[in-house]
Design brief:
The protein is an alpha+beta fold and 121 residues long. It has a single domain, classed as 3-Layer(aba) Sandwich (Trna Endonuclease, Chain: A, domain 1), CATH 3.40.1350. Helix content is 29%, strand content 35%. It has a 5-stranded mixed sheet, sandwiched between helices. Strand 1 and strand 2 form a beta hairpin. The longest helix has 18 residues. The protein is globular. It starts with a helix and ends in an 11-residue tail after the last strand. The relative contact order is 0.19.
Length: 121
């Protein structure tokens, strides 16, 4: 891969296929709004799922899932709130925040990786 964006796009495609094989219906890829970006949005087992994809070639810089810290979680939740509002998704719709950690070629899917986090607090 020649740059990070190309590698990121490649890894996100692999993760999307991995999730689809496991029953996730992908609704959006690289969804952006004024609050930030979410890599994948899908439906799975009655949940609206917001998925952050993180890649590391090796553990030299830590595990991929460790890169989804509190600030990133808050940003993802703000994007999700805005998405739900814009698309008229009822507050009663169950949502989940997942992380797909890719280490080398190994995908690990962490369902319900973190709770909803308020943007400030």
């Amino acid at each position: 891969m020649t740059n990070h964006r190309q590698k990121g796009t490649f890894v996100e495609r692999i993760v999307a296929a991995y999730l689809e094989d496991r029953g996730v219906e992908i609704l959006e890829r690289n969804y952006r709004n004024r609050y930030g970006e979410v890599d994948l949005i899908g439906k799975h087992e009655g949940y609206l799922v917001f998925v952050e994809v993180k890649y590391r070639a090796t553990l030299a810089k830590g595990s991929p899932q460790e890169a989804v810290g509190l600030q990133k979680q808050r940003r993802i939740c703000a994007v999700a709130d805005y998405y739900r509002c814009v698309h008229g998704i009822p507050l009663s719709t169950p949502i989940r925040y997942d992380v797909a950690a890719v280490l080398g070629e190994q995908v690990t899917w962490y369902r319900n990786a973190f709770p909803h986090r308020e943007r400030y607090g």
